[in-house]
Design goal:
This protein is mainly β and about 120 residues long. The chain contains no helices and 11 strands.
């Protein structure tokens, strides 16, 4: 079971990026999905989350600028980020609560983290 995040990069202030995070392997159930970010020197913080029933929650700094969505068939969560600011510069991590099987047949249930994708917003 793996989470693969992508979509980070360098963008100018006011620009947009779309992050993706796909679960792969023998995953048979995906529950809550979320994006976190970690600014250098600070703790990791929640950006946005989405439940299996599409209930969404946003950090105050993300409201009105970021949109979280999911594609259950693809086991993928997205984060559309608009009107980016230099203070949004961070490593963004996806977090997914899922159930699946490892390559050795062991069942795993719980939170999984993606590897992080760097977003850099220049002024």
């Amino acid at each position: 079971v793996q989470l693969q995040a992508s979509g980070g990069g360098l963008v100018q202030a006011g620009g947009s990026l779309r992050l993706s995070c796909a679960a792969s392997g023998s995953v048979f159930r995906v529950d809550d999905m979320a994006w976190y970010r970690q600014i250098p020197g600070l703790q990791r913080e929640l950006v946005a989350s989405i439940t299996a029933r599409d209930s969404r929650n946003y950090a105050n700094f993300a409201k009105g600028r970021f949109t979280i969505s999911r594609d259950n068939a693809k086991k993928t969560v997205y984060l559309q980020m608009n009107s980016l600011k230099p203070e949004d510069t961070a490593v963004y991590y996806c977090n997914v609560y899922l159930s699946g099987y490892t390559a050795t047949g062991e069942m795993v249930v719980g939170e999984h983290w993606g590897q992080g994708t760097l977003v850099t917003v220049s002024s």
